[in-house]
Amino acid sequence: MILTVTPNPSLDRAYELPSLDRGAVLRAARDRVDPGGKGVNVSRAVTAAGGRTVAVLPLGGPEGALLGSLLGAQGIEAAGVPVAGSTRVNITLVEDDGTLTKVNAPGPELTPAEAESLLEAVRVRSAGADWIACCGSLPRGLPPEWYAELVARAHRAGGRVALDTSGAALTAALGARPDVVKPNAEELAAAVGRPLATVGDAVKAAEELRERGAGAVLASLGADGQLLVEADGSWFGHAPAAAVRSNVGAGDASLAGFLAAGGTGPVALAAAVAHGAAAVQLPGSVMPTPSDLAPAAVTTGREIPLDRPLTEPAP
């Protein structure tokens, strides 16, 4: 069972447009609303693959009620923590050429009591969890050290933690030694304070995060593939480039695939790559089902193309 923790969940509304013209009245060809937030997306991907998951998250206002209802409709058990503020609504505009424009709301400000209630909900629900996936930005009111406290409490209870966050929250949590961290290239560059121009640069940055406390690093390099750097060695995984319909939630689908496949080694890396490649071909933040996956198209190995320039260098 994979327990997910999403401190700042959302309702994700996606609109598909021919093009984005500022100042004009735009008519969407299609639209949809999905439960959102990185941990929520991991739960959705686990469920789509037929696995078991529980989603811990704060819920507030009518938006929170709708989010909880949508999760229930998808067969996801939501361990909602009531909060006074309203759950945020994020907007994604998808143009025909694949260009995405995202507007992410800040979300509610949690009180210290609400923050503690969230930690307690994780403790109560974590018994029997194979992994605890802690994902996304922290809402207002939660200090950067909140994830570090969650990791420390989980470890004292014997749990394994996968952390997907960025900035000060990631930096603060490394000292608590999360079992896996999952940055993308930009987040990895920010964590080490230098740009990444090649795959080799990303490997060195991942190794640095391990030296600072991460047990393993699963790094998404976008179209260039994914890296897994852990105590037993490093692996590189890649799948052929596909037509990108939406990359919203693709990294979350990758993490779900990785954890569901054991969370370590090349087999788990291959599952991560397959899930990410499938997710980008689906609309909005739809999570892939087994029929969407193409595992035969994935290649993994210890031979890493260190000199390969990144398609999108991380600043």
Which geometry do the CA atoms define?
Answer: globular
CATH level-3 fold name:
UDP-N-acetylmuramoyl-L-alanine:D-glutamate ligase
Summarize model confidence as the mean pLDDT. 95
- List SSEs in N-to-C order: EEEHEHEEEHEHEHEHEHEEEHHEE
Number of helices: 9
CATH architecture annotation: 3-Layer(aba) Sandwich
Key phrases:
315 residues; alpha/beta; UDP-N-acetylmuramoyl-L-alanine:D-glutamate ligase; six-stranded parallel beta sheet; four-stranded mixed beta sheet; 9 helices; 16 strands; 33% helix; globular; kinase; Ribokinase-like; 1-phosphofructokinase
Question: What is the fold's blueprint, element by element?
Answer:
Elements: E1 2-5, E2 10-17, E3 30-36, H1 38-48, E4 53-59, H2 61-73, E5 77-82, E6 88-95, E7 100-103, H3 112-125, E8 131-135, H4 146-156, E9 161-164, H5 167-174, E10 180-181, H6 185-192, E11 196-198, H7 199-211, E12 217-220, E13 226-230, E14 233-238, H8 250-260, H9 265-279, E15 299-301, E16 309-314
Parallel strand pairs: 1-4, 1-8, 2-6, 4-5, 8-9, 9-10
Antiparallel strand pairs: 2-3, 6-7, 11-16, 12-13, 13-14, 14-15
